Amino acid sequence: MEANKTRMLPINSAYNVRDLGGYIGADGKSVKWRKLIRSGDFPHLSNIDKNYFEQLPLRTVVDFRAHDEAEKEKDFMPLSVREIYHLRVENGNLIPAFQQIAEDKNMPADVAINKAVTLMRGLYIGLVSDYIDIFRKFFNIIQNQDNVPILFHCSAGKDRTGIASALLLSALGVDRKEIFDDYMLTNKALIGKYDYLDSFGPITIFFKTVRSEFLEASFEYIETKYGSVNKYLTNELNVNIKHIRNLYLDI
């Protein structure tokens, strides 16, 4: 790949920063590079990394974090950013619920894992069922060409951002397998970020990694209730499929 066509961006002061470009979408057209960036938070962005974003130039940031999360770790914005949208997903932070599980020293490890899996599946279903207004606003931002290039993120860039990415790539006509492959890249891109949570025991793995079954839970919910992801996108999220493909797929 050329230097400007790499999935993982050369950012060293933040985690899970990667480009959605290059995936094959509708009609065999590829997603444009350096237009749609997904990531974790970036409260300590170095000058070198800020300069990198300014060279894109990164214009818009969409922050899915809850208010308390965003206040605790405020993003360190590149000067090129003109618009910042706070689309609060308040139930996206599972640390309190996981902490409660971890503090129960009498709970067997397998029971703790099962409880954590149930919480994660519930989170992913809740994201697409309870936050329709949030993702409607997200796509409204995405479909405005004046906002491009766009970076969207949460704390880890894996769950809330993972759903946003999966829906976005679906709208662009990317194959489901490729969508899941992109989702699973988090397991490499997030290494090291949450090592400080190791005291949570075996359930710490759910801060550090993703599982395909979680994203699958979202798709299953959508397809059961709405018939297809495209119907959910167009009827619930007001996505203009033709417009978004014209905007982000190479001619």
Structure notes:
- The chain is an alpha/beta fold.
- Helices cover 46% and strands 7% of the residues.
- The protein contains 12 helices and 5 strands.
- It has helices spanning 47-55, 67-72, 95-102, 109-130, 132-142, 160-171, 176-184, 186-189, 205-208, 212-226, 229-236, 241-248, and strands at 18-19, 36-39, 60-63, 83-86, 150-153.
- It has a 5-stranded mixed beta sheet with strand order 1-2-5-3-4, with helices on one face.
- Helix 6 (160-171) packs antiparallel against helix 7.
- It is globular, with a radius of gyration of 18 Å.
- The protein starts with 17 loop residues before the first strand and ends with a helix.
- The mean pLDDT is 94.
Cα gyration radius (Å): 18 Å
Number of helices: 12
The quaternary structure here is single chain
Gap between N and C termini: 20 Å
Described by strand count, sense and barrel closure, the largest sheet is: 5 strands, mixed
What is the strand arrangement across the widest sheet? 1-2-5-3-4
Q: Spell the H/E element sequence.
A: EEHEHEHHHEHHHHHHH
Number of strands: 5
Low-confidence stretches: none
Average pLDDT score: 94
Range of strand content = 5-15%
In helices, the fraction of residues equals 40-55%
Tell me the structural class: alpha/beta
* Shape verdict: globular
